[in-house]
Request: fold
Amino acid sequence: MMMVRKSKGLGERHQKILDFIASYQREHKHPPSIREIGEDCDISSTSVVNYYLDQLEKSGNIERDRKISRGVRLINSAPVGDLFRVPLYGVIQAGEPIPIPSSDFNAFTAEDSIDVAMSLMPAKEKGRDLFALKVQGESMIDAMVNDGDIVILKPTQDARNGDMVAVWLSDRNETTLKFFFKEKDKYRLQPANPTMKPIYIDKNESLEIKGKVVMVIRKVERYN
Amino acid sequence: MMMVRKSKGLGERHQKILDFIASYQREHKHPPSIREIGEDCDISSTSVVNYYLDQLEKSGNIERDRKISRGVRLINSAPVGDLFRVPLYGVIQAGEPIPIPSSDFNAFTAEDSIDVAMSLMPAKEKGRDLFALKVQGESMIDAMVNDGDIVILKPTQDARNGDMVAVWLSDRNETTLKFFFKEKDKYRLQPANPTMKPIYIDKNESLEIKGKVVMVIRKVERYN
DNA sequence: CTTGACACAGAACAGACGTTCGAGTATCAT
DNA sequence: ATGATACTCGAACGTCTGTTCTGTGTCAAG
Reply:
C-alpha cells in the first residue's frame, strides 16, 4: 500500500506537513520538532519526516537550520513576523491635554496596543518609544484626522519644519494636530487639509509640542 | 563586582535577554536556545540563563514550554506572524477610473504590496480579495483622505448604507470616495468630513461602485 | 524477471538542550 | 560578626532531537 504522489508538485503528505508546521507555529510560537511532525501526520519514523522535509526544502517551501532543534520554517507562505507593537495610551481630543508616556515608561501599563507591520513604518521611526492615541471627537478634521482614527506619535519636544505635531495650546486650552513651521517671530501651524488656513502662534504665547505624528490609521467601519 | 538590580522591575540583563530573544526570533524565525542566549548576553553558565528566564516568566514577560528545546516565547511583545498581505494595484485619482483586480486575479501581478497586521483588520474583512491603492492628488480630501494615503478596498458592486465606497461617476467623469446612502429616488454620497455637504446622484445617472473602503493608512512624512 | 526509483519503517548514534545541584562571591541589614 | 538575599559559575545528568544506516514492499521500465 503505497502512496503515490499524483502531481509533480506537492503531494497530500507534503501539504499536510506544511499545514501542520503553520498551525503549530501559530499555536506554540516556535516550530515543531521532527518527531512532532511525524506524530501529527501519522509518520512513524523520523527518517521519513526528514525525507519529506528535504523535499520541501528543495522545492523551496521551507528552510531548515540543520543540526538545530526545531529549525524548520516556512518561507513563501505566511509572511511571518516583523510586527511592531505600539502601546495605546488613551485618547486625544481637543479640550484635553495629550497623555504622553511618563519617564518610567512601561509598555505594559498600556491598556491596549496596536500592531503595525514593520514595513509600514517610516524608516526612521522604528525606535521603541512610539505610542498611539485614539482620536475622540471631530476636532482634528482640519488635520485630516477623524473621530476614531488612531494616530501614532513619537514623543518629542522640538519639531523640525514640516513635521506634523501634536501640540497643546495652553492659552487656548486646546489640543490640536498641525504641520509645524517656525517663522520669523511666530510659529505657523498649518492644517493638513490644503483648503484650510494656518493659525499663527506668537513665540511668547505658550506652545507645547507633545509629539510628532508618524502615522495615521483609520478603520472604516460604518458611518452610522 | 556584582550587578545590582536597581529597580524592582527589569534589570539591564533582563532587558538584554528580552531584546536578544526578539531579535533572534526575527532573524531565525525560531526562538534561541538557553546556551545561545547565554553566549550573546555574556553569561557563562546555562543555569544563570535559566535563572533569569525563570524570573522573566514569573514577571510575565515570557512564556516557556518546559523540557522543550527553544521553548521560549515573548508574550507581551510582537506576536510573530499574523500579517496580512494586500496587493497594491496602483493609484486612485479623481480623473481616472479605479484599477480593480481582474478576475484572473493574481496577487503576484501587483508591483508592490502592503502588510497589515491582522489585529488591525476589521473582523469581517479578512477575505483574500482585498487590494490597496495609493491616493494621488488632493481630490479626496473631502473623504478625509489625502495625497499619498493608502486605501485598502474590498471589491464589490453593491454597498450597504453607511459603507464608504469608491465610486466612478461616469457622468462627471470622476472617481471619488464617499459614504454611500440609498434614498427614495436617489443616492446620497456623504463626505467623511462632517462639515462638507453631500452630493446627490439620481438613480438614472450612472454610478458604479467599485469597492468598499475598509481601511486608510497614512504615513506622515513631511509636509514639504 | 531484473533493476532501480520511490515511499516508508525502525533502530542506533551523537550532539543539542533543559534541568538540577553544589559551591562561591558580593551587598546589606541586623 | 552573622545571616539573608541576590547573583554567578561549573559540572553532571537525562532526555530531546536531528542524522544516518539498513531493510522492506511497491511499481514501472527495460
Observations:
- Chain A touches chain B through 60 residues (CB under 8 Å).
